[in-house]
# Entry
Amino acid sequence: MIKLVVKTIICVILMAATMALIWVIPGTHPHDLAALLNKKEMLIVKPSPRMILVGGSSVLSMKSELISKELRYNVIDMSSWGGMGTFEILEEIKPYLKPADVVLVTMEYGTILDKKFYEYIHTNDEAKKFLFLMSPGRHILDSLKKREFFNLFKLMHELVQMKTKSFLLKIVTLNFSHLFDIGFPGFKDEFTVNGDRNRPYMVFRPLGDSKTNFSNPDWEKLSFLNDFNDFAAKRHARVLFYFSHFPENKYKENETYIEAYYQMMKKNFKGTIINKPGDFIYPEEYFADTIYHLNEKGESVRTPEMVKMLKKAL
# Structure
């Protein structure tokens, strides 16, 4: 019995040591959201003046090289997926905010006006994994303070498993030159130097996410924007907000709620709002696969309009 206990303890120690070793060795995680680690590297190395884009996947098709060219800012597209949560992403970029930075924020309508999706954003496990990966030290301390030991181990174990699979794939395919890359495998192929998507979204019909269930907005869900604006002001940075694009038919269907959202932001938000919801309302032919993703035709209109709005605001 004693021998069995000793062997079990030794196995646990060896497993923990192996897990710790894989955790500290640089490596990629085969998941789209791992690209946030590569974008965090941009936050660290890109010089001022900088414009930091924050939002969901609706932002990823932005032609930020045009913004950079026209406004002379080094652009960092920190957008990924609406399910990550705007509050959470802003918290992650706080330590890297510099004087003269401009943070351009948007929130897809469903993330604020759809109660079920709002709840999902702040509870889904995928978001938690990759937010953890962006600032592991901070999140580990937070979990220890809350005594969430099992959840912490489970999350780290899942991330280590993902990294291990990535290591094995590279070894099998003899891809040794990228063995110790970080973030998303092939990030440089999939994303531009500013963090935008390299490839346009594929076009599908009917558009995804079309079943909207919007309701009146709640300022308590958005008050963090003012907290971040106050933080940015202390760092001598600015926060701008814009209302995202939306299909014409879905805008008409939800105009009451969207207008209430606009009026609430105009009344309460301390930063600068650079547009009205109606400014980015487009026909369905401008959209790709969902009501939040523009195709190339739509983006060829959206980005130049965005540049004009930014020039007026800055």
Remarks:
- DSSP finds 14 helices and seven strands in the chain.
- Strands lie at 50-54, 74-77, 102-105, 238-241, 246-247, 272-273, 281-282.
- The chain has a mean pLDDT of 93.
- The two ends are 73 Å apart (CA to CA).
